[in-house]
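Now for my pick.
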Amino acid sequence: SVSVSVSHTHTLLSVKTTHNFSCSQWDEENMTFLKNMGAKSTGLSFNWCDIEKTPGQYNWTYVDWTVSQVAQNNLVPFAYSGNTPDWALDATNKGLGYRFPPLPQYMTNFSNFFTMLAARYKGKVQYYEFWNEQNGCGWTQPGCANSNQAGAYAPYLCAWYKAMKAGNPDAVLSVGGLDYNEQVTQGYQYIEDLYTHGAQDCFDAVAIHPYGTMDPGHELHWQAINDTFNVLQKHGDSHKPIIVGEYGWNTNDESKKSANLNVVLQQLKATYTQVSFAMYLALSDLPGTPDSGHGYGLCSQNTPAETLSPRASYTTFQQFNKTF
């Protein structure tokens, strides 16, 4: 494992976008709004199943374009990577690549892909995570019962880490964002289990999703950040940054959402110096949600025009003191 230093600065000002894979106008609109609101970072997605739909045949066109858009707007990307292609899955698991890792006979393909990914974007993308909410609904067990499955995830995390470092030794590689909302009281045990299963040298950072509530003092699941840091510190890894990979509030109360956002940004900036990235979800409401003034979005979507209109919470982010 390498020693990683991620400065506690502008990457706290991160906002994820929703992607429309057939509409570059939509992505450009998102980038413009991120730039205008003063965001310093955003998310990217590298889905193995989309890039290598057929073994050995790679389509980088869309992801190349998104990487270039992020660079043109001076945003620091934090990239999801994962999602197994159907050809590397058991027949019963096809279409479930977000939950199931590849069969053993496809681990060479797995390693080749992630080495190629890291090398391709060396100098452009440095920060990656492997998988998403694998302690919740993002792993193999039915009913989202994966809180005790760190031992099954660890070998794939280590294989990914080795492959990515072969492609870019300078990459900062994170445990996939853990489901760690206020109902998940012992999410830290999953991190502890990664150490138990020998994965200490297979991650440079830990990503969590500490969703809070609308109640004062519970804007984020603050205890999740503290508990995660305590586990890292216990194992001599207090230098490894914590990444708040998702947070936000699904509400039509823009006044309250704005107040929450201001509290979280102030607290992260002033107090939680072990947090590097903090990624608000999302710039606009998630796909499939009725856009009638409610949802996670800092903006409203105007359809079918594929444009955005700022909400009060967008202005709150825009006006936040971004001097660190």
